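TL;DR need structure tokens for one chain.
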Amino acid sequence: MHQVLIFLLTSFLTGWLSAQLPSFQAKQEGTIAEVIPQATAVEAEDYFYVALKLKHAPHYHSYYVNPGTTGYAPKITWELPEGFTAGKTLYPVPELIKASLGGTPKNIYGYEGEVTFLFQVNAPADLEAGKEYLIKGEAEWLVCKTKCIPEDQEFSFTIKGAKEGTVFDPAHEELFEKAQAAMPKDGASWVALAKESKGSITFELTAPDGVTPKAPIYFFSSDKQVDAQTDQEVNISGRKVVLTLKRNPESKEVSEELKGILTFQSEDGAEALQITGALVTDAVAGGASVSAFVPATAEDRAKGKEVYDVTYLPETVELGGGKEKKATFWTILGPAFLGGLLLNLMPCVFPVLGLKVMSFVSQAGEDESKIKYHGLVFGLGLLVTMWILAAIIISLKLDWGQQLSNPPFLAFLIILFVVMGLNLYGLFEIGTSLTGAGSELQNKKGYSGSFFSGVLTTLVATPCSGPFLGAVMAFALGQPPLTAMVIFTFFGLGIASPYIVLSFFPDLIKKLPRPGAWMESFKQIMAFLVIGTAVYFMRAYQKLVGADHFNLFLFALLVIGLGLYIYGRWGTAMIAKTKRMVTGYGVAGLLTVSGIAWAFSTAKPPKPGLAWHEWYPGIVELSRPKGRIIWLDYTADW
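>> reply
TL;DR here they are.
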């Protein structure tokens, strides 16, 4: 038994380790970056700034804390000594940049040329004077032109504990003075109030005495509540400015305040203020008009395809900025085979194939030709099912594994695995029928069992193949049918290869533990793994049918289990014929069939309301003009 447990444990072990050396300055495709500390020594409970200076290549830009569109502002992940903390980040006044990302014109809140961001570091109260403290971190930022490049820079420096007063580095005094001057001033002396109705925000600002704001005036929202892609209407009357803004339909943020930077012209030149105003909304949540969600019609789908390009594939770049190499037919065959090979270790495939290993053990010492036939039949069952499934997916232009989004199909798999688990545990015995596939290999039924093992392996492999074969399957489904079928064949051969090889080399089978009492324990352990596979699929099933239907499904499984228990208890030949027919067959059959029917009755989407609905191309684009709030759940769940 211990040999089997060792085999199971060692099958899952893998690991890797990597390390990188820190540096202070980085020259990359989009920027030249420097990380510079303001001080050489800091007093206890004082603070200093660390500057991230970016020099952009021509026509490249980085982002403000609110990018205005997709993107993110520079940030630092700190490794600070004990007691030190990271304080606020200071962002310079951004520019309104007109850029074309992915061929679409966008308003960007960001920076071009040379810009400096300041990050505050706070010293602890128990700082030791004269002691050196090592501060490390990694700065990250995103620069874009027509495409975007994520960049990063590791850094480290030491700073001493000061006895009296923080000591600033005179070599960088001018840099930090310019950086502070580029920050927005405090606008607390202004009176600001925002009112919202049906997605339109009226922001009223009144300047203090002696200040007369002039055009051009623009408000850079820092909390993403304002739509950066819509022009701002500005009305000026003396010291009063009224901005008409539109709520950002892509943001989930709803706050009782409106925050940002107000830029304007005054008699002294360009000004920029940090403004915060109370935000009063109407009765509708978020100020947006919410309409009931209705299922998509054929007309909706047709309109969606007009505004959503389903064939568009964005150019993919690696973290270093280089273009990702495109896959070809010849370069994809190896990953397809290797992915299938590694798939044998995944939790939803391993239990089924564990039974296949046990069948090889039972064959030790038998006719070698029969062993080979069983291996080939297993592979044939796997490949035939793979071909059928691939043909359906290709002909209907579906996604790989999309059958797992079908509630009846998923219910069938769950019921099948639960029944198999109960059979392996010994709750009932049905010989070499469906759930006993692969248990007897010396007759025709045994070959049927091997074939069915291959069929079942293919059916459960689809949801587990994502981590290994996402790119492979995406490439395959974009190829001509014959090419795609060849790729799917290599995938299937990868799964079946260990068992076919094992069947053709009987000496390897002889190295497995000899048949004995341990096989019963092994079979019961496999029962838990098989039922675990059913539990694995239950999570996806609950998302498809909703909590109410899923709870009923669990009770239906309980009824099925009770029926099978009664069959195993009173359906054997040792029970009197009348009791066996009435109880062992009649009552057990009635409960089992009723439980299965009940289970399949739950295999449907939940009632309309707050339920999730099927996504289709264009649904988001078509919903925005109607004022609908759309929550898009984008996961790897089926």
